[in-house]
């Protein structure tokens, strides 16, 4: 097991380094941030001074080495636009996105998995057909449109929920969270529901197809022959057996939700990372872009590692034979 | 004797499908006495498993019990609501299935699964459940049950897993246990152990048992009475010795005569087809054996190693990691087969016999050693050697898996010969027809797809495909293992006939010693990657030298009585 984790760490480091090169080069190609940074009527002298100050006159590989050197010392640079350390900037926005994404994924699992198991258990009943049809809608109708409809219905017509923004936040361990407060939860519910729809459809379909397949196996026949009731069979046998593909999707989706909740965050003016990255791209805020993308790759690697470890917990067959 | 514990009268179980009604169980009646073992025998599709599922009330849709009655100690089970049936399942009637690998849940510990079955009918505390489960495991002779109870199914061997399944079936001391092919997936030696244990458990606990199997010999060794099923009906029933000793129904006679162990080695087996004139008791002529070292296998070793990546190789160098363990599948094996000879390769699962077969055929490259056919190497010398000859062909256990489902069998048969210029695309049809006829199939069948054939026909196709390559040697890897006895007899007859007709040399791999003895001149016994004994078929059976061989031979379930007529035939 230790050898497995060590190997994965090596791989992660390699991925991060390659990723940093690609990102650095990619962002370099997009354009010169200097045009955004200083007003067009600045003198050539001031312009030159600022270019030198940021090291933008150096060849790209030197800039990259400078960047990596700073990175090793824990410094990701300062935002050109906000003029504050990038780490602080991301840290200030991260809880909001984290909260939104986690809520969305939990909603998707808590509703999607039971619905999916039901649909797989009774595939021919009309409720199952309705669930499966709805899940196709959830896949295919664009998120932004559903988001707008939700605002129309719940915020404009019924007026029961706020249309956007984040509610009151309380500080837990120095990090501002909004979900424990009433207004915070009110603000959270619509964007989280909106963000969870696609994932919920995915969970439903995965759980349904897994359940259908497993219900036909001898394991279930044997359990039934032992007189075990259907609910216990679903809860103890089926849920455990379908959990591996579900955990995979859960992990992948958690990553992508945190990283790319942009659309939902924009519609509901949620002050999260998505808005930050869009702003930094339009203003060519190079340090923010690089730091953000590196953070995202680190996030994916961490989640994937966690998913792999979860496999070992869920499936005893994978526990043996590790560490070879 | 008191009333029977289970009484089935006029049971009909039908499956309504779009293409019509399948009468899986078509009006059967039988009873099961207390403490009795009833063997239910039949070939695939005879409805024997459906009978078992009907009794326990687990017929999958679209199946339905159409009529009749199933009475457990006088209580009617047919028409009982699902909830009522559930209370009977596991507590009064329980069931054991064929493959313990499939029936136990791989992600739950044995204890979790046993406790679930226990709590299906009883409210027990955790400590009590544990004690009861350990007790149940001890009862089926699982050593060290205190520890084993927290194991996962994959940590047990096949036989142990089946014991666990039996322990679960016994938890509530049911009155009736239905065992559906419980030893079919196991090795002979393990099967023998399970048979002995089940017998003593039945005697000890006074349980009544229905033993469903396709294998007459195992049924014979365990049952008091036997019922023979065919096409959803019971054709014959009676005390085991009577049914097997003096079968009244022609179908039972046919089943018995199809067993290789009941006829002289090399003789054609009785099949339904063999009633044709000239088919009866014809002995396939032996071919003259030339060139004793026609196939020679010298010091062959096959290691399976996990591919190592750069990092793990560095890890091993730095002593951070263990080097990956290599599996030694074949460990220094040497043997020869004479031209025209049939060598049987027997061994239990995991003994390396299939790997060795594939090496001889040139599918696997040996790690060390050489294989020569008529003096020429079968594979080229380099590390990733290529097969050099088309003179060795192979037939696999599962013909359905080895035939491309999207091509007609004509295309599948013609593919190899065309690639090797044995025929041309233009002549392929005639060429294929010739080989189809050689295996007694109609030439018009060339345009059909594999799924349109039965298992036995598919195995004929696989043989035709191997023959079409004009081989000198055919490696048969368990070619009859998945077939019914009567079909098995047909295929064995075909192999016997073809062997003399085309002068084939055979390497016949099987776990079934009866089949091997019937077909082969010499037998090699494999155990853990090595050949422990080689000898003429007769000497292996009559005077095995190695203890392992002796154990294997002793483990074969035998029919109680042999008809004397056969012995001097």
UniProtKB/TrEMBL annotation, chain A:
Residue intervals of the ABC transmembrane type-1 domain: 94-311
Domain of life per record: Bacteria
Membrane topology: Multi-pass membrane protein
Pfam family, one: BPD_transp_1
CDD domains membership: TM_PBP2
A GO biological process held by the record: transmembrane transport
Location in the cell: Cell membrane
Membrane-spanning parts: 12-31, 100-121, 133-155, 175-197, 244-270, 290-314
GO cellular component: plasma membrane
Keywords, sorted A to Z: Cell membrane, Membrane, Transmembrane, Transmembrane helix, Transport
Claim: tRNA processing is one of the keywords in the record: no
Family: Belongs to the binding-protein-dependent transport system permease family.
PANTHER family: ABC TRANSPORTER PERMEASE PROTEIN, DIPEPTIDE TRANSPORT SYSTEM PERMEASE PROTEIN DPPB-RELATED
Full protein name: ABC transporter permease
From TrEMBL, chain B:
Protein's GO biological process: peptide transport; transmembrane transport
InterPro entries, sorted: AAA+_ATPase, ABC_transp_ATP-bind, ABC_transporter-like_ATP-bd, ABC_transporter-like_CS, Oligopep_ABC_C, P-loop_NTPase
Protein name: ABC transporter ATP-binding protein
Similarity section: Belongs to the ABC transporter superfamily.
Location relative to the cell: Cell inner membrane
GO CC aspect terms: plasma membrane
Domain ABC transporter: 6-256, 295-553
Record SMART domains: AAA (SM00382)
Topology of this chain in the membrane: Peripheral membrane protein
Species in which this protein is naturally found: Phyllobacterium myrsinacearum
Keywords: ATP-binding, Nucleotide-binding, Transport
PROSITE patterns listed in its UniProt record: ABC_TRANSPORTER_1, ABC_TRANSPORTER_2
Top-level lineage group: Bacteria
